């Protein structure tokens, strides 16, 4: 693979920041763009621009002089945020996506990768914790997550139409719950693994931890290192239809709490708050097509990937406030 000039939008965010590092290590020239700088360490991008991609002019600046666009920029967050911010998410992301697509075509970009989400999958297929893994073809008949999932599905179709009508190369990646170090762990936009790591780190050994919902809802979780490798492989694959990118290692939220508690060396009592949003009852990734197209799939087990994730979050918390019990590694 030749070295290329690439743009990563959303490079100030969790996945985008890791993707910049991955692409730089592969020898590419990388421009990172976001409305904010990375929060926890400096970007390794050759050029980092602070731009608001809701503005069409900003998108043209961002896309100038690059061959590949990895479009990760989005207004998003955890379940509490995406269930309470439908209008803002849809309005912001529609502007970002349409302007970025137009700018990429106008500026002569060769390949455009769109980061979609498992939130596009029909809610009627996710009513039980022991959910059947979701295949790419399950997206229709549609019933996506309100707001965030709907706008992601709409942009997927735009990618399809632009490829069919104009011959513009697109890729669509459906992320399934990404976690790892250097990600948001508080403030309301964090995802479940980071939130649970934070809560466990801040809990006394023998104390209590609050869980949103009854704890029986299930998900699969993918480490960010697998995620960025998968993104790169999908861009290089030549495959222009949506692909799942996740693991098929299904676990309940209660099980996730138990894993993190073991890593921390703590025994905690779970207190379930049924008034808080918990999303669909079950969601898992069917990786059959990913294996067929790439001959590869994510391989980092959750119990393995959570160890550095927990210790990084605990270290961040320790740097800002004393923790009740210093975290220790599990045997």
Automatic annotation (TrEMBL):
The cross-references to CDD domains, in alphabetical order and at most eight, read: GME-like_SDR_e
Known SUPFAM superfamilies for this protein?
A: NAD(P)-binding Rossmann-fold domains
State whether keyword NAD applies: yes
Asked if the keyword rRNA-binding belongs to this entry, the reply reads no
Pfam families attached to this UniProt entry? Epimerase
Which keywords does this Swiss-Prot/TrEMBL entry list? Answer: NAD
Domain NAD-dependent epimerase/dehydratase spans what residues? 6-238
Which superkingdom is the protein from?
A: Bacteria
Specify the protein name. Answer: NAD-dependent epimerase/dehydratase family protein
From what organism does this protein derive?
Answer: Methylobacterium marchantiae
Give the classification, highest ranks: Bacteria, Pseudomonadati, Pseudomonadota, Alphaproteobacteria, Hyphomicrobiales
């Amino acid at each position: 693979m030749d070295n290329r000039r690439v743009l990563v939008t959303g490079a100030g965010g969790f996945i985008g920041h890791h993707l910049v590092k991955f692409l730089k290590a592969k020898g590419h020239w990388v421009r990172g763009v976001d409305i904010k700088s990375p929060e926890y360490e400096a970007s390794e991008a050759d050029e980092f621009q602070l731009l608001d991609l809701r503005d069409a002019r900003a998108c043209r600046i961002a896309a100038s002089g690059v061959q590949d666009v990895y479009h990760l920029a989005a207004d998003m967050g955890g379940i509490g945020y995406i269930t309470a911010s439908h209008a803002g998410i849809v309005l912001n992301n529609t502007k970002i996506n349409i302007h970025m697509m137009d700018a990429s075509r106008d500026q002569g970009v060769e390949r455009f990768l769109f980061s979609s989400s498992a939130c596009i999958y029909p809610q009627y297929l996710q009513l039980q914790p022991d959910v059947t893994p979701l295949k790419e073809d399950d997206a229709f008949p549609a019933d996506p997550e309100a707001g965030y999932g709907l706008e992601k599905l709409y942009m997927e179709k735009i990618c399809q139409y632009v490829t069919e009508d104009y011959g513009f190369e697109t890729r669509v990646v459906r992320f399934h719950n990404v976690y790892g170090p250097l990600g948001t762990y508080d403030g309301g936009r964090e995802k479940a693994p980071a939130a649970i790591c934070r809560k466990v780190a801040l809990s006394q050994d023998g104390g209590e931890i609050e869980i949103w919902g009854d704890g029986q809802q299930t998900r699969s979780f993918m480490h960010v290192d697998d995620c960025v490798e998968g993104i790169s492989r999908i861009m290089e694959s030549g495959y222009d239809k949506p692909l799942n990118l996740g693991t098929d290692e299904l676990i309940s939220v209660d099980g996730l709490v138990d894993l993190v508690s073991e890593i921390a060396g703590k025994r905690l009592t779970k207190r379930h708050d049924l008034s808080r949003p918990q999303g669909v009852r079950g969601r898992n990734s069917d990786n059959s097509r990913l294996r067929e197209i790439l001959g590869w799939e994510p391989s980092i087990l959750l119990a393995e990937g959570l160890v550095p994730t927990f210790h990084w979050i605990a270290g961040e918390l320790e740097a800002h406030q004393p923790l009740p019990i210093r975290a220790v590694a599990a045997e």
